[in-house]
């Protein structure tokens, strides 16, 4: 009987080599982009949605490149201090690569970049585990937005419901989610059924580097926070 492919041993050295090669590709890609383009931006993101980000990224497809991934790898690519930076002053960018962040390398005029980032915001359904930004509560009574076929499913989500003459009825007030608390899988499903979008996918500029200057966008940051090497 032939052996299952899943039973074949995996050599860890090979997986480590592939991981190292992938990091090298990212490092080289960033360095090539920095050499080719005139400005480098750090941006942060909230509630990342891959499809929506791809749509936003398409606006720069002819004039720039985005990089997302390990902040540490991106820092290595740029240089983490004045002694190993690839362009003068660009180590300041590395110091602001933390948390949910990415790089944009482009020749687009800064006013246009700022306009595109500031204007972009898109609502979406919250995912399990995300923090509810507001409390959603349903009041006792008929839930006419749901068909009678939905009643068993709603009960499985923990909602106190019954069918009353073919109409789904909520037997008591029900809190779907509470502000500041993580969403359960059931809460996430109910919000989706209700059509309530609590998540906002947003991109925020943090800083901009060019050969001639360095600019901070985020409030609360000071040049002294990034100038020490």
Automatic annotation (TrEMBL):
A Gene Ontology cellular component where this protein is annotated is: cytoplasm
Q: Which family does it belong to?
A: Belongs to the universal ribosomal protein uL10 family.
UniProt organism field: Brassica campestris (Field mustard)
Q: Which residues form a coiled coil?
A: none
Read off the Gene3D superfamilies from this record: 3.30.70.1730, 3.90.105.20
Stored Pfam families: Ribosomal_L10 (PF00466), RL10P_insert (PF17777)
Name its GO BP terms in alphabetical order. nuclear-transcribed mRNA catabolic process; ribosomal large subunit assembly; ribosomal large subunit biogenesis; rRNA processing
Q: How does it assemble?
A: Associates with the pre-60S ribosomal particle.
- Protein's UniProt name: Ribosome assembly factor mrt4
Q: What is this protein's function per UniProt?
A: Component of the ribosome assembly machinery. Nuclear paralog of the ribosomal protein P0, it binds pre-60S subunits at an early stage of assembly in the nucleolus, and is replaced by P0 in cytoplasmic pre-60S subunits and mature 80S ribosomes. Ribosomal protein P0 is the functional equivalent of E.coli protein L10.
Which keywords does this chain's UniProt record carry? Answer: Cytoplasm, Nucleus, Ribosome biogenesis
Q: Which InterPro entries match?
A: Mrt4 (IPR033867), Ribosomal_uL10 (IPR001790), Ribosomal_uL10-like_insert (IPR040637), Ribosomal_uL10-like_insert_sf (IPR043164), Ribosomal_uL10-like_sf (IPR043141), Ribosome_Assembly_uL10 (IPR051742)
Q: Which residue ranges are recorded for the region named Disordered?
A: 1-20
Domain of life, per UniProt, equals Eukaryota
**Residue span, Large ribosomal subunit protein uL10-like insertion domain:** 127-196
Enumerate the subcellular locations listed in this protein's record, separating them with semicolons: Cytoplasm; Nucleus, Nucleolus
């Amino acid at each position: 009987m032939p052996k299952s492919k899943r039973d074949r041993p995996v050599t860890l050295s090979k997986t480590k080599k592939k991981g190292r090669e992938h990091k090298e590709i990212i490092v080289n890609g960033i360095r090539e982009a920095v050499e080719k383009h005139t400005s480098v931006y750090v941006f942060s993101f909230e509630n990342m949605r891959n499809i929506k980000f791809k749509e936003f990224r398409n606006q720069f497809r002819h004039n720039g490149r985005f990089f997302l991934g390990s902040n540490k790898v991106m820092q290595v690519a740029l240089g983490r201090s004045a002694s190993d930076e690839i362009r003068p002053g660009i180590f300041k960018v590395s110091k602001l690569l933390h948390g949910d962040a990415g790089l944009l390398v482009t020749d687009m005029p800064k006013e246009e970049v700022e306009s595109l980032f500031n204007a972009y915001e898109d609502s979406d359904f919250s995912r399990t585990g995300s923090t509810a930004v507001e409390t959603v509560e349903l009041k006792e009574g008929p839930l006419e937005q749901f068909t009678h076929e939905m009643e068993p499913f709603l009960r499985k989500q923990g909602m106190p419901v019954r069918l009353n003459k073919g109409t789904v009825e909520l037997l008591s007030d029900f809190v779907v989610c509470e502000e500041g608390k993580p969403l359960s899988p059931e809460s996430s499903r109910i919000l989706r059924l209700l059509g309530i979008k609590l998540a906002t996918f947003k991109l925020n500029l943090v800083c901009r580097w060019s050969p001639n200057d360095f600019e901070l966008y985020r409030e609360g940051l000071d040049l002294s926070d990034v100038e020490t090497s």
